[in-house]
Amino acid sequence: MEFVLLGVLLFLLYLLLSWITVFFFRPRCPRHFFLLYWAVLSGLYIFCTTRGAGLPEDQIQLAAWFSGLIFYTVCCFTMWNSFYSILWGFSGGLLADFCANQDLCHVDSISQSYSKTKNLTDAPQEMDRMLNRRIPGLIGGGYLKLEDGHFKVEPKGKTIAILTLVLYSIFALGKGGGITVESTSEEYLK
User: CB neighbours (10 Å) of residue 75?
Assistant: First the structure.
């Protein structure tokens, strides 16, 4: 039991270090820090549990030792994946944009806001591939609903949008690293 408890404590330390790094230092590639923290804290787990005496000889103790290490590792990589999926993910930001600005819920407005433009003529080109691939997935997943040429954010989508906004504020990603609620359709259409 003490091995799993140590895994939990190290995971909490991992979360704290990751949050401090992203919130205060804002690195370009936080994954390098996430990997470094995981490796150092894994080494700390091994050192604290073996204390130079090697692995436990009892099979139950050995299973508990591996359980603690595996639990810690799975938690760290789940947090890492969540960070990139939710905080830096496109779909969560898109849902939050829909909730924050009802003007974007019209198909033409959202298409214009994510369309590519030529630098010289400002004539719209084809729709951005990222948006083109996400909208059907959001509709199919029950996050958005298309009715009469307008997108309606479903309760499931609103939940993801709210969680995205809360996590953005916790990690203080702000403009450039995420979305801002104060944004207006004019900003998107520029």
Answer: 18
Residues whose CB falls within 8 Å of the CB of residue 83, separated by 6 or more in sequence, listed in order: 18, 22, 30, 34, 171
Q: What token pair was written down for 187?
A: 């900003």
Asked if 105 and 41 touch (Cβ cutoff 8 Å), the reply is no
CA angle 183, 82, 29 (to 5 degrees): 75
Could you read off the pLDDT of 34-66 as tens digits, one per residue?
999 999 999 999 998 888 677 888 888 889 899
Residues 154-163 have pLDDT tens digits of 998 888 888 7
How far is 124 from 104, CA to CA, in rounded Å? 17
Residues 6+ apart with CB under 8 A from 151: 98, 104, 105, 106, 107, 110, 144, 145
Token pair for residue 110?
Answer: 């959202």
Residue pair 154/143 in contact (Cβ under 8 Å)? The answer is yes
